[in-house]
Design brief:
Elements (H helix, E strand, L loop, with lengths): L1 E7 L1 H4 L6 H12 L3 E8 L3 H14 L2 E5 L10 H8 L4 E3 L1 H9 L13 E3 L3 E3 L8 E4 L2 E4 L3 H11 L9 E7 L7 H10 L3 E6 L3 E7 L2 H14 L9
Parallel strand pairs: 1-2, 1-3, 3-8
Antiparallel strand pairs: 4-5, 6-7, 7-8, 9-11, 10-11
Helix pairs in contact: 3-4
């Protein structure tokens, strides 16, 4: 399963807010075997959000959009997602009933709070007020991290892919001197290889087979100046 994550908010683009939602979602999706192909930040603009959602919906199995839900002037995500699918925004009776069960009446909230894309599946907000929605394979979640996490957990089982096994080997050599061995590693084993330099180079090996990952890691330890792991 391939997915894209779209985070909405001018505050992300100017650096006022750290994009922790994207990091958290990528981690949770990866743990379920889902390959995240894109992480994109877009401004609070209907046309930009709609364009990206439309493009990613056509290209990937699922799209998760976070941020910009609610009744204020810059909360335009629902309008944009509706536009991406050529739908109207409409009062959603299920979302209104759910809020009523929590003690919110129509006079307590702006009318737009329960306006969602027509024919969507509403998602209750267990940690807040503004509901989310699922439109075909696009999941629209709040931007407040506690609300986003609670809502994602309601639909998490709908995301599944091929689980992978990851091993790392620390190597005490310059990364540039390891390039030929990385190429050999990919040729010999069915793995993906990443390298992350610091005080040492951390070689990350990812494979669908645990045994294949173990064999590749053993090859790196044999053919490079691997840092010995300290015993506990």
């Amino acid at each position: 399963m391939n997915a894209a994550v779209v985070t909405v908010g001018d505050e992300l683009l100017v650096g006022d807010t750290e994009n922790t939602n994207a990091t958290w979602l990528c981690d949770r999706l990866d743990a379920r075997g889902v390959t995240v192909r894109r992480v994109t930040v877009v401004p609070d603009e209907v046309a930009e959000i709609a364009r990206v959602v439309n493009e990613y919906h056509a290209e990937y199995d699922a799209v998760i959009v976070t941020g910009g839900l609610g009744p204020t002037h810059d909360d335009v995500t629902m309008e944009a997602v509706a536009a991406a699918f050529g739908r109207d925004l409409a009062a959603n009776e299920e979302a209104a009933a759910w809020l009523a069960e929590r003690g919110y009446s129509g006079s307590d909230l702006a009318a737009e709070t329960t306006h969602l894309p027509a024919d969507c599946r509403p998602l209750p907000n267990e940690a807040g007020v503004a509901p989310g929605a699922v439109v075909e394979s696009v999941y629209v979640l709040p931007g407040v991290p506690t609300e986003m996490k609670a809502m994602f957990e309601l639909v998490e089982d709908e995301f599944a892919g091929t689980l992978t096994h990851v091993l790392t080997v620390d190597v005490d050599e310059p990364e540039s001197e390891l390039l030929d061995r990385f190429a050999s590693l990919r040729d010999r084993f069915d793995v993906r290889v990443g390298s992350y330099p610091g005080e040492v180079v951390t070689v990350k090996i990812t494979a669908e087979s645990e045994a294949e990952a173990e064999r590749a890691a053993a090859w790196v330890r044999e053919h490079a100046d691997a840092v010995k792991e300290e015993s506990a």
